[in-house]
Design a protein that fits this description.
12% strand, 6 helices, elongated, DNA polymerase, domain 1, disordered N terminus, 5-stranded mixed sheet
């Protein structure tokens, strides 16, 4: 009489069937991995054949990288240099979320080709920090709640920094005009203006009354 098998045991036939499927599955998996590696190798070859050398100063340090001509500065910063404080929001140069400073001037990095910054100086939000110490403009935005969701904040802070470098004691009208290229979807504009005022006080001793 044959012994009944319990629910947890496998027959030799079932085991071999499963094993065979596993081998086939593994072969297919390894085949796909090989295809993926080959595809990646082709992609790397394509990149190397089209990439060009780029040297520029980033947050005070000289950077040398290979860049495809179509790569934007925002993509280079975020995807290749891991400086994710620079946000890509609209991708059309309209909102200012990707603002960085190029030779001290606020620009939209999503509309700037990386190769166009060759030999120039780029400052990102990370570059405002001194170790773990916030810059006065960053401190002012925190103290005056010049941020809500925070997504536009790096661009707002850099635009404010550029403004205060060129106009140390701006009027409210100057603040509104110079910051107009940076949109805040949370509409925290009154707090942003107060933040710039406070940053001016911290950096330069205050702003003139209107």
């Amino acid at each position: 009489m044959t012994k009944k098998s319990n629910g947890s045991s496998l027959s030799r036939r079932e085991f071999m069937k499963g094993f065979g499927t596993g081998v086939i599955g593994s072969s297919l998996f390894l085949g796909r991995v090989g295809e993926a590696v080959a595809a990646e190798s082709e992609e790397v070859k394509a990149f190397l054949s089209s990439a060009e050398p780029l040297t520029f100063t980033l947050n005070g340090e000289e950077i040398r990288v290979m860049v495809e001509p179509r790569t934007t500065l925002a993509e280079l910063l975020r995807n290749h240099l891991n400086l994710t404080g620079t946000k890509i929001v609209c991708g059309r140069g309209e909102c200012g979320g990707c603002t960085v400073l190029l030779n001290g001037k606020a620009i939209y990095s999503c509309h700037t080709l990386a190769l166009d910054v060759a030999g120039l100086e780029v400052l990102t939000i990370e570059g405002l920090l001194s170790g773990e110490q916030l810059h006065p403009v960053q401190e002012a935005f925190v103290e005056e709640d010049g941020l809500q969701c925070g997504f536009c904040t790096p661009g707002q802070i850099l635009a404010a920094y550029a403004l205060l470098e060129s106009h140390p004691k701006p009027s409210d009208k100057q603040i509104q005009y110079e910051m107009a290229g940076n949109l805040c979807r949370c509409a925290a504009y009154p707090n942003i203006i107060r933040s710039v005022r406070k940053a001016s006080t911290k950096m330069n001793g205050g702003i003139p009354s209107e």
